[in-house]
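User: Run a structure prediction on this.
Assistant: Running it now.
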Amino acid sequence: MATPVVYIGDRPVSVGRPAYVIGEIGINHNGELSNALALIDHAAAAGCDAVKFQKRDPITCVPPDQRDVMRDTPWGRMSYLDYRYRIEFGENEYDEIDQHCKDRGIAWFASPWDVPSVEFLERYEPVCHKVASACITDLELLAALRATDRPVIISTGMSTMDEIRQAVEALDGVPLLIAHTTSTYPCPPAELNLRMIGRLAEEFDAPVGYSGHEVGLQTTVAAVVLGATFVERHITLDRAMWGSDQAASVEPGGLARLVRDIRTVEAAFGDGEKVVYESELPIRQKLRRVTSAPTDPTG
């Protein structure tokens, strides 16, 4: 089977190519545009390929029995529906986000949680769409995404293999990428199950990546070693900020280290052919007592 290649914008995503790195802003901006723009700046400076948001139409997404449930927020006590509206960006904010990403040379896209949000995002001609783990069984949403003909990433947290297969079938015909993930925030290392990256790659004709919700960076780098063709981590200005995703997110300094370490590991992969490098020849000449002619390091 040929190695699948999917283009996100002008970047090919496939085995053997540099991992596509996504900074998941999600709702970690807490409804403040200045936070979102600052996170875009940090992601671009770190060398991320894209940032990702979450888009919801609150009246569509919030079930009727939850709309009037009261909750404490940084803006006071309010209903859950009012809270969802408070942190949701609209056209004015996304116009600025779109322009800011263009200015910084970084792509952006989002996870739409409902059909109206797909229609909203299409105004910006995003490089791709993403299906959140919570939405993988929403066949109406998948049909709307399929109709866009854009690349789609599906996240597979809290899903069975049959549910993943159903989603893949529903998206047949569009460029598809699959993200292994575990939907626990933060996720303990014992539940990351990184070997699923290889399992998904064996079963599906699609690039497989990793969306991490763990604390720390080393396991995300390990995902690249195990074959992840793209990686996504939630990013935040400060892990102590209010919000359910903040504790499982990476701060700016950590994000820069993560991208650096991924690129270092990728440079170390090599091509799997054993050669004697030019840098080894003086050491070989000094230390080998019995030698044979070395193989031409250029092949």
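The first strand starts at residue 6 and ends at 8.
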